Amino acid sequence: MEGRTVGVLGAGQLGRMFVEAASRLNVQVRLLDVGAGAPAKQICAVPGPSGSGSEHVDGSFADAAKIRELAAKVDVLTVEIEHVDARQLQAVLDEKLVDAVHPLPATIALIQDKYAQKAFLAEKGLPCGEFAPLEGAAGAEGQVKAAQEMGSRYGYPLMLKSRTQAYDGRGNFVMRNANDAPAAIAALGGGERGLYAEKWAKFEREVAVMVVRSSSGEVRSYPAVETVHRDNICHSVFAPLRTSDAGVPQRAREIAERAVATFGGAGVFGVELFLMPGGELRINEIAPRPHNSGHYTIEAADTSQYENHLRAILGLPLGSTALKVPSSAMVNILGLADLDKDAQAVAKTMAPAVASLAVPGATAHLYGKVGCRKGRKMGHITVVGQSDAEVRARLQPILDALDVATE
Ligand code: ATP
Ligand code: MG
Ligand code: MG
Question: Ranges for the ATP-grasp domain (predicted)?
Fold first, then answer.
């Protein structure tokens, strides 16, 4: 069906699940990431011409030369992470080393800078809450003062964020009062990194919508889901989102579709939103790729986010985004400790996955990450059922195992 080869920048868990989808459609994939044992490379053997070695590229997705090396091997490039060298992606496109890069390098560059991303969305009329860059003198002292000025403007708690290189809350600092400013600036790079402030969102719940966009501009959203974060990291996802105001899920989808329609290029996007008391929705941020909040689509939707990403970037017809089960939930398996510090705690990390083996409707996904680190995403479990009550009941032994392991 498809003769073109796809190159992916990054070979972590998102790349791994993308490779699973690609392999079913017999689409060839080449991966760029550090190490021959990266999660996605483990399940995608591509021996070199002599029958040994590998056609994958070992190196950083932020390394211009490595991106060129990958580009020379493939027809279409995509990413599993936004922290890539977007300028080099534009260069290989301009030089016609590849036929296409999706999402567009310009979209990746825009999204990389969380402040620029929000300013762009706000300018397009999308609801984003209040935010502003930290101005003032460079260096720690100037930035401490600027953070305190933001505190006076927006009140406390105040959310300070790194503009770039942020993930899993690494790059966020919650200031409780003006005295927290020196610690906040120190934690966020000592005034060297570009920072911005967001007014605290007293949200009722967090919501996410996966959206797939074809290269011709067709936009399809998946049902809205509820995401639960602990310590800034996604803990669990419930699909579909249930609200007393039945209009909320549809409004979330409309906002997410409108937001993704403002970007060029094809692919899947993850739109994170805050549901405020009274039903108002605000965009938190957008990821230009498959997303943790869309893992559930593998078992619960007609077409998974990974397959739809593949179809979108290759210009194949998009698949249905409808749920094929009435209810589903996903729980992340996060590393409980660093491997070299507490082997006993590390051994407990997989307890929820073991518990899930006895649960009907549960599917465990383990990512094959080599080293366990505290808070690192090591796997996830999806549970499906005929009702929310059934899913909650099926989830319980898995959550119990998680609680016992974390005690
Ligand atoms: P990701 O791994 O999703 O890319 P990230 O490091 O980019 O995470 P954010 O999504 O900006 O971080 O924030 C992480 C979490 O922090 C959010 O899901 C939310 O729970 C909380 N948060 C973020 N911004 C605000 C805000 N303005 N007010 C209150 N809570 C917030
Ligand atoms: Mg983010
Ligand atoms: Mg986020």
Answer: 118-314
